[in-house]
Specification:
- By secondary structure, the chain is α/β, with parallel strands linked by helices.
- It has one domain: Glutaredoxin, CATH 3.40.30.
- It is built from 6 helices and 5 strands, in the order H-E-H-E-H-E-H-E-E-H-H.
């Protein structure tokens, strides 16, 4: 059994993969409410995960998707299975969407307009994930 320190150590790189590229990590319900309570503009919310079936394509795909304009004005992330209360609170803002991780939700003025679920990511390459998100950005962030 891994200690809490060891487990946190193992996922830090997964956190950094997003935060090193401009994503703001929301670790508490209060963080989530402060960030998502402001519904202005466009927001990409990445629900990070250690899921081997999809997370390996999700994180680099999401990062690639925001590397060129147009892209959302705010980049946020929560970590499913690690920051459970924050993730649960964030999912409360994704009205009508099933629970999924990893996942990426595009919100405009606080409303989900596009979402990639784990099933949309599994078996895909990071470039394919990025392309799907960029298509949504061209529609909603231009």
């Amino acid at each position: 059994m891994f200690s809490t320190y060891r487990r946190n150590d193992m996922v830090q790189g997964m956190r950094d993969e997003l935060t090193n590229h401009g994503f703001v990590e929301l670790r508490t319900p209060a963080d989530v409410d402060a960030a998502l309570g402001d519904s202005t503009g466009t927001t990409l919310l990445m629900i990070n995960s250690v899921c081997g079936c999809a997370a390996g394509a999700a994180r680099p795909g999401v990062v690639r998707s925001v590397s060129v304009p147009p892209s959302p004005s705010r980049l946020l992330t929560v970590f499913a299975g690690q920051d459970r209360e924050a993730t649960d609170r964030a999912r409360g803002y994704l009205v009508g969407q099933p629970v999924s991780s990893p996942a990426a939700a595009l919100l405009v003025e606080g409303r989900v307009v596009f979402m990639l679920h784990r099933t949309d990511i599994e078996g895909e390459s990071p470039d394919s994930v990025a392309d799907k998100l960029r298509a949504a950005y061209r529609t909603y962030c231009a």
